[in-house]
């Protein structure tokens, strides 16, 4: 652990203890081996003069829903210290009452809800308190000799306490153990199976004490050769249709569309090939907090027809029935990660964000599991204790914050061809804005930069090459799990020439892209769409189909053929629940083929102003790429769920078409 403290940066916050608290919190959050996705919490105690001129001690503690990696001063909840200390002296306090009392004691009601460990932070009599779920610390305590390891590593200046459920009962435990403690003799507290606290009146000392103690744990693991992880190359490469079928089965357990990502890194494959991987992972998570993200155990992908989905669902049902109380309502039975021997690991979730969280947690998990095994065996908290956290009402509240409101296309996967610019780009962006995970395909390499990140995938793809299309769909399946929405849009518009002047190469090339290219994409996507959620194909046609013009024979013929292809596809794919509809845009001028010069020349040809030319339709309105995109997004949604084989113009009304 290397200190990230910079005197020059810290100097900017010296006059504001809460700002300094936020700064050192971000330093902790910048190290994934300390803090993962909302885990850990920090606080600072500040003297405050209230409205009546009275002096009050206020605890600024990390607010629920904030991440230490990005937290700002407004992410801390200001709570009256005297109330928190009174609560610590209570013999009993329900979770609901604790949360309500903490909120009532806040001096800023618009601040986020205080951490459930606010009382514990108040008990520790130092200005700055840091708490992390360090991989190294938790790993060495998740072993049969975990307590002995902790005492050996940290020595007498660190208080080692047994695991107990977070929240009030944990605060009460610490209160009882430290009632007569001389705090000057201690630098930290280790909570077995949970994490570590450090504290000091100086922010830098508290932060760097955390690093020193965690480094001791890391050194201990290294000295016992418990830091080596298995690495291997894949011996199995699941195909796109195979991944899509598994995703479909998992979605049945989740009760909604979901995303699924394959991790075939050497570390993931090495772990998946370990003969004790499933048995070790089934014993429990690295810290109990992780259970709300990855459930108590992973699924093993096996050779059965459903790849082990039903087996996992039954094991989760049995787990729930074994530990449930009357007030518990079973969560979904869908795993959040899976081990695929020889192929790697899978991350499963409803959003790109949840996939990233699961992937990050499992990456740390597989390293910790192997380290714990090397130290004598992986022995985390009991299954009953994991259940207690998974079904804890306060942890469930965290999930609601993480999940938020559900966008219309959340969990669905879309592929858009010709997406580097113009209509295709607008469609891809609008689908993404509505919650879909989007793969944008184009011959132009700029698409890889325009569409990147957790929810997007930009791929160079040539629709005249079957191999290029298959490679792209494989990449989509590996990142998102399958395919639900195909918008086949890629096309070319050759220079205007009358039939007598049209070259064979222009004719052939136009049909190869505008007709055969769409056929290749649709054909390759069918096996994935058959396993999709409310699967839908949108074909981008043209006004030239019902109303062709002179000089566009190749373009008009290719789009007319494409429209017929879409009609046949609608007939053939309806038995599989795949909808196929066509849109016919016209006069969409904010695309690459329409420069200002071209528009001006066309307007002059018709004897119109540029604005009148852009709106020369029955509704006298301008059509934009965004308008086309909004139509597509609507057509792949529930409003068109009963529609297939349709052809819909988006042209402001064209008298020739009508």
Annotated CATH architecture of the largest domain: 3-Layer(aba) Sandwich
The CATH topology annotation of the largest domain reads as L-fuculose-1-phosphate Aldolase
Classify the beta-strand content into a percent band: 5-15%
Radius of gyration (CA) equals 30 Å
In DSSP terms (H or I, runs of 4 or more residues), the helix count works out at: 25
What general outline do the C-alpha atoms trace? elongated
Mean pLDDT: 95
Largest sheet: 7 strands, mixed
Low-confidence stretches: none
How far apart are the termini?
Answer: 71 Å
Main sheet: which strands, in order across?
Answer: 3-2-1-4-7-6-5
Number of individual domains: 3
Task: Supply the CATH class of the largest domain.
Answer: Alpha Beta
How much helical structure, as a percent, in the residues?
40-55%
> How many extended strands?
18
Computed structural class = alpha/beta
CATH H level, superfamily name of the largest domain: Class II aldolase/adducin N-terminal domain
């Amino acid at each position: 652990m290397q200190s990230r403290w910079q005197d020059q940066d810290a100097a900017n916050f010296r006059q504001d203890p809460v700002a300094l608290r936020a700064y050192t919190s971000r330093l902790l959050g910048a190290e994934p081996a300390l803090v993962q996705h909302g885990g850990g919490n920090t606080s600072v105690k500040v003297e405050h003069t209230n409205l009546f001129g009275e002096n009050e001690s206020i605890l600024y503690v990390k607010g629920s829903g904030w991440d230490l990696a990005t937290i700002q001063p407004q992410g801390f909840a200001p709570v009256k210290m005297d109330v928190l200390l009174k609560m610590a002296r209570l013999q009993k306090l329900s979770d609901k009452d604790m949360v309500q009392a903490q909120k009532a004691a806040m001096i800023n009601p618009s601040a986020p809800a205080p951490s459930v460990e606010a009382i514990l932070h108040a008990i520790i009599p130092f200005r700055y308190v840091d708490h992390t779920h360090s991989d190294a610390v938790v790993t060495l305590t998740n072993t049969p000799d975990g307590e002995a390891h902790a005492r050996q590593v940290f020595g007498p200046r660190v208080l080692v306490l047994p695991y107990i459920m977070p929240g009030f009962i944990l605060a009460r435990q610490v209160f009882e153990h430290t009632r007569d403690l001389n705090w000057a003799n201690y630098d930290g507290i280790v909570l077995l199976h949970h994490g570590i606290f450090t504290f000091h009146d100086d922010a830098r000392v508290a932060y760097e004490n955390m690093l020193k103690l965690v480094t001791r744990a890391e050194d201990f693991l290294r000295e016992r050769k418990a830091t080596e992880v298995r690495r291997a190359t894949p011996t199995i490469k699941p195909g796109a249709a195979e991944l899509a079928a598994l995703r479909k089965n998992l979605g049945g357990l989740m009760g909604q569309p979901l995303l699924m990502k394959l991790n075939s890194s050497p570390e993931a494959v090495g772990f998946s090939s370990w003969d004790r991987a499933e048995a070790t992972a089934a014993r429990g998570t690295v810290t109990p907090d992780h259970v709300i993200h990855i459930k108590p155990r992973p699924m093993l992908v096996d050779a059965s027809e459903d790849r082990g989905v039903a087996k996992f669902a039954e094991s989760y049902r049995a787990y729930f029935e074994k530990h449930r109380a009357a007030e518990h309502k079973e969560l979904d039975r869908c795993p959040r990660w899976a081990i695929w021997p020889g192929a790697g690991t899978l991350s499963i979730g409803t959003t790109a964000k949840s996939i990233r969280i699961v992937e990050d947690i499992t990456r740390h998990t597989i390293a910790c599991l192997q380290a714990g095994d090397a130290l004598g065996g992986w022995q985390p908290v009991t299954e009953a204790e994991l259940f207690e956290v998974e079904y804890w009402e306060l942890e469930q509240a965290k999930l609601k914050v993480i999940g938020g409101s559900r966008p219309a296309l959340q969990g669905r996967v879309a592929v858009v061809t010709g997406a580097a610019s113009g209509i295709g780009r607008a469609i891809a962006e609008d689908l993404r804005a509505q919650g879909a995970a989007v793969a944008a395909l184009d011959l132009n390499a700029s698409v890889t930069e325009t569409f990147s990140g957790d929810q997007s995938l930009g791929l160079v793809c040539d629709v005249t090459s079957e191999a290029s299309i298959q490679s792209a769909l494989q990449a989509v399946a590996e990142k998102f799990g399958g395919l639900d929405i195909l918008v086949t849009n890629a096309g070319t518009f050759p220079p205007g020439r009358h039939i007598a002047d049209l070259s064979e190469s222009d004719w052939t090339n136009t049909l190869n892209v505008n007709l055969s290219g769409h056929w290749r994409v649709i054909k390759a996507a069918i096996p994935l769409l058959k396993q999709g959620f409310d699967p839908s194909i949108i074909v981008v046609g043209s006004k030239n189909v019902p109303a062709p013009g002179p000089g566009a024979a190749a373009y008009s013929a290719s789009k007319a053929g494409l429209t017929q292809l879409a009609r046949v596809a609608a007939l053939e794919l309806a038995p599989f629940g795949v909808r196929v509809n066509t849109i016919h845009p016209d006069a969409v001028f904010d695309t690459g083929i329409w420069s200002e010069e071209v528009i001006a020349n066309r307007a002059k040809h018709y004897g119109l102003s540029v604005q009148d030319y852009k709106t020369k339709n029955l509704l006298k309105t301008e059509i934009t790429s965004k308008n086309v995109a909004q139509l597509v997004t609507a057509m792949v949604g529930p409003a068109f769920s009963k529609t297939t084989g349709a052809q819909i113009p988006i042209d402001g009304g064209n008298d020739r078409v009508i």
